[in-house]
UniProtKB/TrEMBL annotation:
Listed InterPro entries: Rieske_2Fe-2S, Rieske_2Fe-2S_sf
Keyword tags: 2Fe-2S, Dioxygenase, Iron, Iron-sulfur, Metal-binding, Oxidoreductase
Keyword Oxidoreductase among UniProt keywords: yes
Gene3D superfamilies: Rieske [2Fe-2S] iron-sulphur domain (2.102.10.10)
Record-linked PROSITE patterns: RIESKE (PS51296)
Top-level taxonomy: Bacteria, Pseudomonadati, Pseudomonadota, Gammaproteobacteria, Pseudomonadales
UniProt keyword Transmembrane helix present: no
Annotated SUPFAM superfamilies: ISP domain
UniProt xrefs under Pfam families: Rieske
Protein name from the UniProt record: Ferredoxin subunit of nitrite reductase or a ring-hydroxylating dioxygenase
């Protein structure tokens, strides 16, 4: 029996694929994810609102409110902090989006 080697990190996208501030959705290895960019910071989440368990966006790649500072669910308007995924307004206040660990290296966004 051979030991399984650890799964290598995988690039999600190039940093330049995201506006600043910006957001983009991905279907990645069977998972629905989205990434938020604010300056040189990137946050990646599962695309599932904790209120009803459905995708957040109404139109493709639209995950931010009009200010570009908060993540917004299009269905009932819940607002989430980009860095923690905490809902700070709306029907699921106090609940969290599921964050996916990532890092930026060589101009690309990598999932850990
Ligand atoms: S489904 Fe997201 S706020 Fe209701």
């Amino acid at each position: 029996m051979t030991a399984e080697s650890p799964t290598p990190p995988i690039a999600l996208c190039r940093l330049d694929d995201l506006g600043d501030p910006g957001s983009k959705g991905f279907l990645f290895q069977g998972r629905s994810l989205f990434a938020i960019r604010q300056g040189q910071q990137i946050f990646v989440y599962e695309n599932r609102c904790p209120h009803r368990g459905i995708p957040l966006e109404w139109t493709p790649d639209s995950f931010l409110d009009n200010s570009g500072r908060l993540i917004q669910c299009a269905t009932h308007g819940a607002l989430f902090l980009p860095d923690s995924g905490e809902c700070v307004s709306g029907p699921c206040s106090g609940e969290y989006l599921q964050q996916v660990a990532c890092n930026i290296r060589d101009g690309q966004v990598w999932l850990d």
